[in-house]
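Quick one: co-fold with PTJ.
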Amino acid sequence: MAMGDISPNHPRAVSLKTRERLVKGFEAGLVVGEGLAAHGRGEAFDYILGERTTLQAKKAITAAAAALLSAENPILSVNGNVAALVPGELVELSEVAKAKLEVNLFHGSRKRETAIANQLRKFGAKKVYGVDPKFSARIQEIQSNRRRVDSRGIASADVVFVPLEDGDRAEALRKLGKFVIAVDLNPMSRTAEAANITIVDNIIRAMPLLINQTKRLSKNPTANVKKIAANFDNESNLKATLGLMLKRLKALSDR
Ligand code: PTJ
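Sure, here it is.
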């Protein structure tokens, strides 16, 4: 299907347009082939969720906004998929949460790092971390290319936002005492389990809500905001999300 051929009336228009954005990102050198596969896995979980933002996800979004606002050095980690899907939203969130944007890739490549940084700049980012070798640092506990971080960014961050993440990084960041916020449609992933706050929602739907919650909470007293982040229970929230998925599958199988 050629670009622009998707009718807004198509029953799967949002999903098709999201795929189109990723493919465009792949062709522009932002997304790796593996990123397309990762998106497919996300879609499968989203389908089970009913492609909607659950009450549990909304709670996690509010807690995530509170955690970002309570941080001293919050970082938004940017990979190829999110650079293609939500670049403008990442820039807006970085502004409202006063958080730095850092490019951090699993499938490392200087060329892609530069393309992603340029994409963020195109959407208004004034400063992008993770691309200047002068400030390159290493987190030994991480077993992938993601160990290469910016000394002014992830290395010294207290709160790290890691959307669409693979394997071991959330665990390693936790061991280093950092507060981790994940966005992952798979509530069973190691990242989802290791994070302090996991937003089980499609990044496409979650980002605008996260921006709004951050704007709203920024007007609240700091002590209240800190309490919201501290009171969030990730384990029970993930269990409730899995329960919802089961309930939905059961209802479908009983039809
Ligand atoms: O650009 P790079 O090199 O940093 O690589 C990025 C990918 C995504 C390829 C890399 O991080 C990876 O391989 O990730 P995984 O291990 O496939 O994990 C990605 C997780 O994100 C999976 O659990 C998916 O279910 C989930 N996911 C995929 N698309 C979405 C999503 N979650 C929320 N919204 C989505 N649109």
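If it helps, The radius of gyration is 18 Å.
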